[in-house]
Amino acid sequence: MGAGASKPAPKISSDGTPIAPDRTQRSQCWEARDIYYGCLDKHDILDSIAEKDKAARVCAAEGRAFEANCAESWVTYFKKRRIAEYKKNKTLEKLKVEGAQDLR
Amino acid sequence: MKYKTVQEQRSRYHSGPFSWKAGVLFLCSGIGLIYYFRYEKARMERKRIAEATKGVGKPKVGGPFELIDQHRKPFSSEDMKGKYALVYFGFSHCPDICPEELDKMARMIDLVRASAPASAPALLPIFITCDPARDTPAVLASYLSEFHPDFIGLTGTWEQIKQVCKKYRVYFSTPDGVKPGQDYLVDHSIYFYLMDPDGDFVEAIGRQHSPEQAAAIIKAHMGDWKK
Ligand SMILES: [Cu+2]
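That is the input. Now the predicted structure with copper (II) ion docked in place:
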């Protein structure tokens, strides 16, 4: 992961410690993430970690842009969060359907 | 209908067990009482939340600490006395939750300040890092300046941060001895802690609250404050 991606070097604070991504860098990362997600959706991939090979094949450019714009820890976090969000929404939908049935 | 005298006119309206004035008064006080009871109920509920943590001995959430702010000035729990504080734990290298919550916090602070009476105690927005190795004062200064000019960013040694997290019941998972250039994530609380001018915990405001709802909760607690 991260191979070939040339991340811009982080800015350095006045005491020499690297500064966290700022607002602009964050939104660039989120944008690249959403484009990558869009590609995964199109190819029916939920878990891009488990389906690593397929994701690398069908979303190569999007994946590279995602990794180029986000720290590696963020990339992993977002890939996992995508799965967690999906499961959460599924559970909510299920509860809603069950609730609707109870009312009937 | 015409009345012969003013007297007669008056007596007509005054007579009877349910004169119009009494009726209006009754209605008004009735409505007033409903509002008063509602207000009292809400106030008592807030008081219950606020008092639940006071009790005997040490407060359950919060407590004394000594850290430094983003300008390298010492900042301790004593600096919170006499003021309300909204305390948030996070870290600047956070991928998404912290930035969203800090934008919300900035909005809350502005909403509360815009409508708080002049007599109300001040409200301090405080960000305590859970990642002291990377969040030095200089890093916090540049990070927080993008959210609100009044944010107070606190950092310290790994041990100091561990202790303050413990006092605020924040799960602390940050490894000790990490290098500043390392890439990792840390756990932190997702709540805003509202602390009163005594330094006692009042209420936790969560992600489900909009800035407007949160501001209303804070203002209600501030309005209850009498000292
Ligand atoms: Cu965070």
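Residues 70 and 140 of chain B are 6 Å apart (CA to CA).
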